[in-house]
Write a structure and sequence with these properties.
2 copies of one chain form a homodimer. Chain A is built from 13 helices and 10 strands. By secondary structure, chain A is of the alpha/beta class.
Chain lengths: 358, 358
């Protein structure tokens, strides 16, 4: 089989002939341009007509997210971070329990606070299985009782018992405290159950931290879990991914990197190299990873984090399923609960666990 | 298992607390806004640092695509379409043959012109297999000898014999001529081989037409092929998909719907309902479809067409693999031949054929 380089290419019509001029130009060395960045003009973007009515209505009801305003919404001191952290750690556990039909029990494992979330009815396939849930919130928020929200969603939909890790967070406990806490809980679980009976996962920082933790499990010589659920994972804390730029202002949840996200990344990394695979797992070696389920949307600022992680997993020969939802921004499926998109996500995650856990 | 609607939602902290204000607003009925569209401001988009050096260099070397200029690049008469069609139908078959290490033979099947493309060495897994190739070009361009380019790429990479269909196109032969031609060739093939030994596919209009043809195969009661390769398929000819708006001007190949694309759609549909599944296959019923491989990129204007098709396939219980490449625009893998992205696409397609053809 021959390997062709652009230099040896036969000159033939390409995918779309209209593109030929750009293409030929694209194969020339850079020279003419002053900046390699593109200035993309203003555009009007309607609600995604191919998305569910619920999602369309949610997007039509609000003005375009303000990138300028979001850039200002950045805590300026540890004190301000702590105020936000405390405010977002509150949740009404009784309401969550009755709303999702689960029981919730707070406990401590190896000094780490965890929440055991059990569905009313465990699915027969999951009698011996556990979902180790890692919550999101940019590595800074949504701890405490709030950790359990997504765990309750997955537990009730999949009919699986979940254990949600209330890992330590900055400003008081920056990296690597969160990774250490997940590892501690996982090692404790391995004392009484097989690795393949455990699915690990979460959304956003929870997805990223799950991937980082598996890198750490492998480095420690531990057996890997049976499956990973990486919901729009924050897999790269640096400002690298294409969708941080292309979807800025289109993602109504994250809006921009240059506010909360960038600040949270710096707070969490605490001076460590952000390309450390335990901080930005996309930079790691994915050989030996378990089957991984990845979710994102066309308006997700972590579309690229998710897609890049998927490609790294595939390149390492790992079973990896990527799912992109039309018009969906970061973690929309946790927010528009009951929407077709959200129902579909949890049905798919449930099927994935049933297929891969042992 | 309980089904929650937003109305019965327990009020709990969500994915990212910063999003809470938008979220709460998002669950309210629309009222305040004058238009439901968002005006998204100007942005600077650098080359995708997570993509290959070749792709980054190709993007850095050209200015941002001009949406305004692309809107003008629309043929205004059948005569102008025919000039473009003729200009893009030329290819140097000797160069393609030697460049990709294939032999090319022109023939006629049931009155349809086809090109048989055979690699120097057929892979042992593919001794009895055939790739039925459907070329792209917006249903109007890249016919004639130019049909074979992608077929040669797949044939040489996968080590599989390909048959490329030079289907009839508008303005002289609008819908349903193209579908009929693919059906004629497929029926002819079934006389001498099993459906499961055939993979059908192509890129752009070629991906869309492949999906439409399989809808037609099923309606006719024919056995479906063993696999589909849907490279950034034009699965919806209407202006519906989210990425037609979000990636306008970011996709250096397609640039905008409101020029060549929209005009080609109208020319091809020729007054038929564009939501006919034989024209826009995403609107069809995907039950009974064979395993399907889907490719797109974060800057692809058909990102949404591809993702929406993937979801419809999954909802119908079909094996469907979605792959999104970082920073990649529409059909970039056919253009930047030899780039890591392009090599990866054809390696994956090859593996998919080897897995699913019988």
């Amino acid at each position: 089989m021959k390997r062709l380089s652009p230099r040896t290419l036969p000159v033939v019509p390409l995918a779309l002939s209209l593109a030929l001029a750009f293409t030929v130009a694209g194969l020339q060395p850079a020279a003419a341009q002053e900046s390699s960045s593109w200035s993309i003009g203003e555009r009007d973007v309607p609600p995604p007509a191919g998305a569910s009515e619920q999602l369309q209505a949610a997007l039509a009801a609000v003005p375009a997210p303000s990138v300028a305003a979001s850039r200002q919404q950045t805590p300026q001191s540890d004190g301000q971070w702590l105020v936000m952290q405390k405010a977002t750690a509150n949740a009404n556990l009784d309401q969550i329990a009755s709303g999702f039909g689960v029981s919730i029990e707070k406990a401590e494992v190896e000094g780490v606070t965890v929440y055991r979330v059990a569905p009313e009815k465990v699915h027969p396939r999951h009698t011996d299985h556990l979902f180790l849930h890692v919550h999101g919130g940019g590595y800074v928020l949504n701890g405490g009782d709030a950790s359990v929200t997504e765990a309750a969603m997955v537990a009730s939909r999949a009919g699986i018992v979940a254990l949600s890790v209330d890992y330590r967070m900055p400003p008081e406990h920056p990296f690597p405290a969160a990774v250490e806490d997940v590892v501690s809980v996982y090692k404790h679980l391995l004392e009484s159950r097989s690795a393949k009976s455990i699915a690990i996962g979460g959304t956003s920082a929870g997805g990223g931290l799950s991937l980082a933790a598996v890198h750490r499990f492998i480095a420690l010589g531990l057996d890997v879990p049976g499956a990973i659920y990486a919901g729009t994972p924050w897999a790269d804390l640096t400002k690298t991914s294409d969708s941080l730029f292309t979807n800025e202002g289109l993602d109504r949840i994250l809006v921009t990197y240059d506010g909360f996200l960038g600040a949270a990344a710096r707070l969490y990394a605490d001076g460590h190299d952000m390309k450390d695979p335990l901080i930005s797992p996309v930079y790691g070696d994915f050989e030996g990873f378990p089957p991984t389920y990845l979710i994102t949307g066309t308006r997700d600022m972590f579309l690229s984090d998710t897609a890049r992680t998927h490609r790294k997993l595939r390149a390492a020969g790992v079973v990896a399923d990527l799912h992109v939802y039309e018009g969906v921004a970061h973690a929309d499926y946790l927010i528009l609960v009951g929407s077709p998109e959200s129902e579909d996500v949890f049905a798919e995650v449930s099927a994935f666990f049933k297929k891969h856990l042992e």
